[in-house]
Amino acid sequence: MARLLHEIARNAGCVLTVSWISVIIVGRVFDFHRAYVAFAEQTRSEQWLLERCKDDHFYHNMAYHTDVCALVVSNSQISPTLYAVNASMSQMKMCGLYECASVLLMISSGGVPLAVCCVLLYVMAPSFLLPLAQDLYEKRAQTQLQRRCSPLLHKSGGGPQYARFSDDI
Predict the structure, then answer these.
(1) Range of 35's domain?
(2) Is 52 within 8 Å of 33 (Cβ atoms)?
């Protein structure tokens, strides 16, 4: 019984860890994509202004807005990929897309039934249902292997009960 509880706790811990890491990775990929698309669009839209800032006459006409030209030139020299990685990592949240306190608040606002369902999902699915399904599959595979390798099959030439397995040998 203690071993079973240990296995259940280990499986639940593994599922929680894998789920947590998966949520973080999905959140980082989403933030990366959003930052990449936004910065690439920004540099595309600044392309016209970048060309105009190279013109001395235009640059001197914008004497009060020289910081705009400096910003546009600076943005054109930044890799969108590196910008997106920096933006994604600077917005990193330990619970994916939300702060952990916000996630706990969302779960607690759902009440006790939601919390119980979450616990049952994370505990029962990997710790009970998946090993049960795996055990049933292994028993079925063993039964099929024994039927295929049975001496009766080779001795009698296979009867009607073995007809569907005779092609496999």
Answers:
(1) 2-153
(2) no
